[in-house]
Amino acid sequence: MATHTGQDRQEPQHSQDLQHTHHPDIAGGRLFCRSALLPEGWRSDVLLRWNADGDLIEATPGSARGDAPLAAGPVIPGMPNLHSHAFQRAMAGLTETMGSPTDSFWSWRTLMYRFAQRLQPQHLEAIARHLYIEMLKAGYTSVCEFHYLHHALGGAGYDDPAELSLRVMQAAQDAGLGMTLLPVLYQYGGFGAAAPLEHQARFISSPQWMLALRERLQKALPENGMRRYGVAPHSLRAVDAAGLAALVDGLRSQPGGADAPIHIHIAEQTREVDDCLAWCGKRPVQLLLSQQELDARWCLVHATHMSDDEYRAVAQSGAVVGLCPTTEANLGDGIIDAPRLLDDGANWGIGSDSNIAINLRSELRLLEYGQRLHHRRRNMLASQTQPAVADRLFAQAVSGGALASGRRVAGIAAGQRADFVVLDAQHINLADRAPEQLLSALVFCEHEGNPVRDVYVGGRKVVSEGRHALEEGARAAYRATVSELLKD
């Protein structure tokens, strides 16, 4: 008999109810921008037009305003967040006390597993809704949710296997955030098909279960401009070669699966590399390359510790490298060779991962500062053709994040989603800056307040003058959730 946990658990809305949120229907829209960041750079007097589906049909510089509404400040693309574990938002600040002189990712992971045991479906939904509103207010307009909490306590199934996935989808839809949901396949506790740990029981499944889950999600909430479904083999230590092949091959045979994104944690810690070498004589990225033909549908999350050959092969494959500088710093993972990554022309993007911070500007800044500290030089990630560090990083993070999401969110251009951010022209860090100085000020000048004023997702204004319509209720529900989870 399938079970539920939590006597006060609220039932998720049925799929037909999920179609209706607080967002009004629109028949398309327009916005006139005195200054907007297009793929070719900053342009003046840009007219944006989008259709009822939320797709841009025009982004034309040098236009007359006519009767189009005027953007209240400079307009930049929304940033895709390519890696998130929503439930970990509620853990922020709870693992910062030394438990051992050798504290590392692995000791943090044990604490994370214990925390995950307490979560009920209503907790996950409240945490995710609050988090996704935070993302929007920070300028993220979409997220790739690496979702591996599937079952009830002890691994018992829910009546609806998609219970927790639908909770996450409901939260994103309520917030108005674009979503790529990546249900995670977790089979084993370590390399060589090691038995799972007791605390991993809520994650464990099979390739067939994962593929059936994706079919259930497609039936409940079909893919559209706001949502996409991929898969995520958790890591090579948690999925064996046969399981990986079954998942990838099965995905490709499903409707919409041929070009669906595949994300995987890889080479995050030196111990992972050492364990992989000891088990099979290959490094993690090297092993993955021997098992699968990588392309732009793949996102290698972290990939912090690669050899020269691995850097070269990943760049040539077109796969996206998912960088999460704040979380990688928090966990003591190490520093990727970002100059090498960029010089090789690899695709990459940024993610908030453990969600201890929701600040895309900080992610880009820390990516650069880590290199400055390591190499003792400035402007490490600039180039001769792109001398402004922030401009180069922002453009590449948008492009790589769009690839990783499998959605049309690659910037302000016809055919892309109408996902963009209006900056506060009067913000102390941005006022009086020329357009070519704005991103540098945005990324490297962190003082008072949030410079994000308005946020549009699929043509709908979901943040207005720095506020989201649901933020007060979402914050109250989040606080109540955390209070309940922290009770002894």
TrEMBL record:
Cofactor(s) demanded: Zn(2+)
Keywords in alphabetical order, please.
Answer: Hydrolase, Metal-binding, Zinc
Q: Which domain of life is it from?
A: Bacteria
UniProt cross-references to InterPro entries, sorted A to Z: Amidohydro-rel, HutF, Metal-dep_hydrolase_composite, Metal_Hydrolase, Metallo-dep_hydrolases
What are its E.C. numbers? Answer: 3.5.3.13
Write down the SUPFAM superfamilies for this protein, in alphabetical order: Composite domain of metallo-dependent hydrolases (SSF51338), Metallo-dependent hydrolases (SSF51556)
Where in the sequence is the signal peptide annotated? none
Q: What class of enzyme is it?
A: hydrolase
Give the Amidohydrolase-related domain ranges. 75-461
Q: Which Pfam families match?
A: Amidohydro_1
- Note down the stretches annotated as region Disordered: 1-23
Q: Which Gene3D superfamilies match?
A: Metal-dependent hydrolases, Urease, subunit C, domain 1
GO MF entries: formimidoylglutamate deiminase activity
What NCBIfam families does this protein's entry cite? hutF, PRK09229.1-2, PRK09229.1-5
This protein is called: Formimidoylglutamate deiminase
In its UniProt entry, the species of origin is given as Herbaspirillum robiniae
